From TrEMBL:
Database matches in InterPro entries: IorB_Oxidoreductase, Pyrv/ketoisovalerate_OxRed_cat, Pyrv_flavodox_OxRed_cen
GO molecular function terms noted in the UniProt entry: oxidoreductase activity, acting on the aldehyde or oxo group of donors
Keyword tRNA-binding: no
Keyword flag Oxidoreductase: yes
Coiled-coil stretches noted in the UniProt entry, renumbered to this chain: none
Lineage: Archaea, Methanobacteriati, Methanobacteriota, candidate division MSBL1
Gene3D superfamilies, alphabetized: Pyruvate-ferredoxin oxidoreductase, PFOR, domain III
Organism (species): candidate division MSBL1 archaeon SCGC-AAA259I09
Pfam families to which the protein is assigned, alphabetical: POR
Domain Pyruvate/ketoisovalerate oxidoreductase catalytic per the UniProt entry, residue ranges: 11-190
Name of the protein this chain belongs to: Pyruvate/ketoisovalerate oxidoreductase catalytic domain-containing protein
Matches recorded under PANTHER family: INDOLEPYRUVATE OXIDOREDUCTASE SUBUNIT IORB
Keywords of this entry: Oxidoreductase
Amino acid sequence: MKCKLLIAGVGGQGILTINQIIGESAVKEEKQILASEVHGMAQRGGSVVSFMKIGNYRSPLMGHGEADILLSLEPVEALRSLDKAGSNTDILVNSKPIKPWPVTSGKEEYPDVEKFLEEAKSKVNSIKKIPASELARKEGMERAANIVMLGALSKLDKFPIEETTMIQTIKETFPERFVDINIKVFELGYKFFDSP
């Protein structure tokens, strides 16, 4: 199975950790993987976009409408990446905004993300909002929202890496004292759409 995955967020949200876990998991399953990252101006708070292709591809980059999955850790970053989404794209978006300084200082307004996502629904296969930051915070580790999102990603049928492989890679990626909490929040994301 082949998959074109776009991951979007801002610096400091753990996109590189997601890339590492997906990449190492793909290698474990002997799947070819190509990846490319684009970082914004700021180390923390700037846009970060990662392109990943799992399967037999020549380049990790994507054209307009090519993404099978768009995984966004921040709502506005999902909007910025919508040009890569097409009628077959499934979008998973963390519902918690990270407001940049111009917004928090009152100089600018945060966009009406709900309006844009509602308009985008007719142009993509599905859009699913996940309260990843809230779920991770309830477990005492809001910084692990990226792992909640990784769990939700693993649930999608079009994502070609097994949940068990991802969990094994999580065990190998984090220091021992953080393994259990990361597996727990991964499973919260994985099971999120099962709950009524």
